[in-house]
Design the sequence.
């Protein structure tokens, strides 16, 4: 059988997984951590500590600010120095808890040993509560609170849990390393999620350029005797790790416009999230650290490091030999969808998966010229849109036609802009048009109610 | 530390640019260009030079002095127009005729619409048809080619011209076909405009473009298939009146048109199915003009006509959107 992949569009950017052999290693603790209360989609968490308070590793420092929100924990032990606005990765001010590090004392009840806990608790309610208390959010990019995602709306039924191990963005290797080094934990985490969803089928979707990970996870599943679990080797193609694309690849089903994956019976969780679920449920360990890839051709010390949440980027970079002289751009995330960082004093978040350093010649865009109607953008678009048309409509400000041509379906994957030989900044324009159209759609929906 | 660049994603870009794509097309045309030099000699070389130089210089001058925009000649598209035009006229054409054709192609058919990407018609074909209408004598008179190395060719008129004339004078196709062999057609041993010769060199260029993913093969293949099927039908019904499929595939610049002019990005449909319909239209119109029209050769007209309906094809044939009916 031909290897599976998604059915529309997609591109093959250079793989550049130059840090794939770098095992994950812990970094020393920084002198101070800066923990933002807005590390997830939804309402920011509310701080529950004040300057002067002593905190331990894993102790909650902020509680959910709404239903779609998450706990935030201290990632270090020490003294709270301040609670106030501080600039985050993107340069925006966010409420941040500053903690001076003193030793490394963990909160009570957290199992910090390496012992693998295989027995899964039976009570699903208790599991969900542990996931909630552990501050677990989707670590594949969206940072949606996991306990919410695992409580499907009444009437919907999950048929398949997909564990997203695609890591289809160039350069990134932290999920790959996690699969290799923490395969058991990830598989047990997946087994827990599968149980919560009603013992559904569980598929690990891993791209074929990671054969070691595919083999290892198959072995682990066999060794642990997990039921209903399989590994699917997928063709390498970006953006396979996009939720909608992965569901198409694995289940041959497509999620309708504006609908949730559960509407076609799918729930997608990322590898790092599975690990976080394992930690939260089996070890009572909330998210206090995560693995981050440091990479890029100009970065001399390729690495996958385990760092505490809230570690300043500049500290991490200094630990690994400092800022490369010829880097002009540092990206949080991959080169296709990651965000360019404005400020290296900012601190890591739960969802930070990589720091990518690019030279000018790797990232500077060419000058835009006329559209030559080559259709490459449309061929590349995984949502089947016509970026050249959306671009033209956006320039004309034609909101009705933009909506009719589904600009709101754009997943901002960047395939169009990547492919355009005329260097037209398609996604820049489409992103803004999409925001405008969504605003109109929301207003209309609100007016109907 | 110097300031970091902050810009929206994506942060990387494929190596493919307008210039790299157009350069590939030029490379793909080189075998045919060489072939035309060898078979038609110095006059063909002169025509090629005048055509390309006129296209490039004119585009440079117009963008700089009239449109007051940065020059676009770096994208190589003017070079392609120049080459295609020179391959589209008989080698006996006087140099000033092709000069006028080039001026029309670039000045009127391309830049007056706003330049590459804005034009409705393929500039080279527009230039050729303009010449065909304005200077019919030069454009339809062929004489026996005397190649660069003195290679002798057998006939002095194009095969399609011979057939058309012959039929008018009451001969039948099989009688007329006696004057040339398929081997001659395939290896450029026939009269015609440069691009009508050396099918193999053109096909090699086409394969190169497909391998390099510069174009998709569907438009070209659907033209070939339609021409083959249409002529098979007519020839099957009346072989005395209608020419056979192979003959129609190999003559009249069909290969040049199908591989290099119908596949022009700007003037062909975006989607695969739009392209297939576009190709069927070109193939069918070509055969209708050849069999029933007053010109012996129909590819250029067929492409021009189908160019005009591309906006409609783009509207009708869209790719399926994800998750939508
Ligand atoms: S960014 Fe949007 S429009 Fe562009 S390819 Fe991706 S989904 Fe399509
Ligand atoms: S890829 Fe660029 S040049 Fe090609 S059709 Fe799309 S917008 Fe136009």
Sequence:
């Amino acid at each position: 059988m031909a290897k599976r992949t998604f059915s529309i569009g997609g591109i093959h950017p250079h793989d550049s997984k130059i840090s794939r052999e770098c095992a994950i290693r812990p970094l020393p603790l920084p002198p101070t951590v800066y923990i933002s209360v807005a590390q997830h989609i939804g309402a920011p968490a509310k701080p529950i500590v004040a300057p002067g308070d002593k905190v331990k590793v894993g102790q909650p420092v902020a509680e959910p600010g709404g239903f779609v929100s998450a706990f935030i924990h201290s990632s270090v032990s020490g003294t709270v120095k301040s609670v106030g606005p501080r600039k985050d990765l993107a340069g925006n001010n966010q409420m941040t808890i500053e903690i001076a590090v003193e030793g490394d004392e963990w909160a009570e009840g957290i199992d910090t040993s390496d012992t693998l806990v295989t027995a899964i608790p039976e009570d699903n309610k208790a599991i969900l509560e542990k996931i909630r208390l552990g501050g677990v959010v989707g670590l594949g990019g969206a940072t949606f609170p996991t306990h919410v995602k695992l409580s499907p709306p009444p009437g919907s039924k999950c048929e398949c849990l997909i564990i997203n191990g695609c890591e289809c963005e160039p350069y990134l290797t932290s999920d790959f390393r996690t699969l290799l080094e923490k395969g058991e934990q990830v598989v047990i985490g997946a087994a827990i999620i599968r149980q919560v969803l009603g013992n559904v089928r569980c598929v690990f979707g891993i791209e074929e350029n990671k054969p070691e990970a595919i083999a290892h996870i198959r072995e682990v599943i066999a060794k642990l005797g997990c039921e209903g679990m399989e590994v699917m080797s997928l063709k390498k193609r970006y953006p396979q790790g996009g939720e909608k694309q992965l569901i198409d690849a694995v289940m041959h089903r497509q999620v309708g416009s504006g609908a949730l994956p559960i509407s076609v019976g799918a729930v997608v969780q990322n590898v790092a999230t599975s690990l976080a679920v394992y930690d939260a449920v089996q070890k009572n360990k909330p998210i206090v650290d995560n693995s981050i890839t440091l990479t890029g051709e100009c970065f001399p010390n390729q690495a996958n490091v385990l760092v505490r949440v809230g570690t300043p980027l500049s500290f991490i970079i200094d630990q690994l030999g400092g800022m490369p002289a010829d880097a002009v751009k540092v990206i949080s995330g991959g080169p296709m969808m990651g965000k360019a960082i404005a400020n290296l004093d900012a601190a890591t978040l739960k969802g930070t998966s990589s720091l990518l350093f690019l030279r000018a010649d790797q990232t500077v865009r060419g000058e835009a010229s006329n559209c030559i109607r080559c259709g490459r953008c449309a061929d590349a678009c995984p949502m089947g849109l016509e970026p050249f048309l959306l671009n033209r409509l956006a320039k004309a400000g034609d909101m009705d036609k933009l909506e009719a041509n589904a600009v709101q379906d754009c997943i901002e994957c960047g395939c169009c802009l990547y492919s355009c030989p005329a260097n037209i900044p398609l996604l820049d324009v489409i992103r803004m048009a999409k925001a405008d159209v969504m605003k109109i759609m929301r207003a209309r929906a609100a007016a109907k109610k | 530390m110097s300031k970091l660049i902050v810009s929206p994603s994506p942060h990387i870009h494929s190596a493919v640019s307008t210039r790299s794509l157009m350069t590939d097309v030029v490379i793909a045309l080189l075998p045919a260009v060489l072939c035309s030099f060898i078979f038609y000699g110095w006059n063909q070389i002169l025509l090629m030079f005048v055509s390309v130089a006129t296209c490039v210089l004119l585009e440079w001058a117009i963008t700089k002095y009239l449109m007051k925009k940065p020059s676009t000649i770096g994208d190589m598209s003017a070079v392609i127009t120049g080459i295609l035009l020179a391959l589209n006229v008989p080698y006996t054409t006087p140099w000033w005729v092709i000069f006028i054709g080039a001026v029309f192609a670039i000045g009127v058919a391309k830049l007056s619409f706003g330049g590459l990407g804005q034009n409705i018609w393929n500039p080279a074909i527009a230039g050729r048809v303009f010449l065909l209408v304005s200077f019919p004598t030069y454009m339809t008179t062929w004489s026996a080619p005397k190649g660069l190395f003195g290679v002798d060719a057998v006939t002095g008129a194009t095969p399609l011209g011979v057939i058309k004339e012959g039929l008018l004078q009451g001969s039948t196709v099989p009688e007329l076909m006696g004057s040339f062999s398929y081997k001659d057609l395939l290896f450029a041993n026939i009269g015609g405009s440069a691009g009508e010769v050396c099918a193999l060199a053109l096909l090699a260029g086409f394969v190169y473009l497909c391998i390099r993913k510069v174009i998709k093969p569907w438009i070209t293949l659907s033209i070939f298939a339609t021409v083959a099927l249409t002529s098979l039908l007519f020839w099957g019904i009346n072989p005395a009146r209608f020419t056979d499929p192979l003959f129609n595939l190999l003559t009249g610049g069909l290969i040049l048109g199908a591989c290099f002019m119908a596949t022009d990005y700007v003037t062909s449909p975006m989607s695969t199915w739009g392209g297939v319909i576009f190709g069927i239209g070109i193939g069918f119109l070509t055969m209708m003009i050849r069999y029933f029209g007053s010109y012996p050769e129909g590819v250029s007209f067929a492409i021009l006509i189908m160019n005009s309906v591309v906006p409609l094809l783009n509207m009708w044939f869209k790719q399926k959107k994800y998750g939508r009916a």
About this structure: The CA atoms of residues 392 and 398 of chain A lie 9 Å apart.
